[in-house]
């Protein structure tokens, strides 16, 4: 197993949300699948880090998120339990949050100090709906797209899942509060696990029976000691579950965490991509459970599309645990899957001139349909020290189909 790295809509608007930020959703990060905090404590940011970024990994060389290349030569990498890992364990599609030095706007580069990563769901696959591009596990519906990356063990992508029903999957995803489902950025097949995991909002709560609902799953927290007393509908939690359901079909919580990662440090720069998970107005909402003040922001695509569940890219700064936006841009996904969704830099290996494939940064790349060769030809692939590759995923989500290959400085 690779141990990887709606909400609160307050009628009173953002000022109400700010007053409750330490109790609820100061920044429990859906993009990171939780963190190393607990219901009574949290881990904060790295003091002095200039920039904060969250999203899914779209490339390597070193790590690329939201179009920024982060140098990982001195980075500390943590999973969602706070355990240390190597940067080599990061994969395309992983949900991450990054603390870094200043982002160079001209080169779109920065030096990462901390990368945290983790999935939203880990549990047994129960059903596959290929016609609607979705599957179900632990009572959660998961949608896939042209940019969903699949474990190489899942050759065939979504179609291959029908052959592994009952097996454990780990899913990195964004939660879509409007449709109450997850949109996967990466799907991995797990050999064995000690526990299952869910991260998302509580949809219903029974404080008498000590149960709550996430998706269609009923989760019992009756055996937890101490008992959580501050749970609420729409609150985000990360819960670890026993792998055998109870006789009534409910799942037993082994641990439960809330307020796992507040943005306790201010950051002069911040960029977050994700879904709007709570909404009061176009200028007061949450993204990935991070409260956003967009009262002074520009809206290049207008405000009408800034609604619950919308995919957005927010740029701004972090002040007192709130993302103060300078720009709110809609991400409609219309350009995804059409040429340059992913980017890799480095030295290739395992060159196969017959199959027209090679391996770069642990990813199999097909160069059979390259439209742009820059600084080299196909015949020179084996002679170039470093290359840059841009492309989109194959239909099964396991191979990067290159559209551009160039010499990398």
From TrEMBL:
What's the protein name? DUF5666 domain-containing protein
Where are its TM segments located? Answer: none
Q: Quote any Pfam family the record assigns.
A: DUF5666
Q: Kindly give the PROSITE patterns that the UniProt entry links to this protein.
A: PROKAR_LIPOPROTEIN
Q: Which organism is it from?
A: Ideonella oryzae
Give start and end of each DUF5666 domain: 122-187, 273-328, 346-406
Q: InterPro entries from the entry?
A: DUF5666 (IPR043724)
Tell me the domain of life: Bacteria
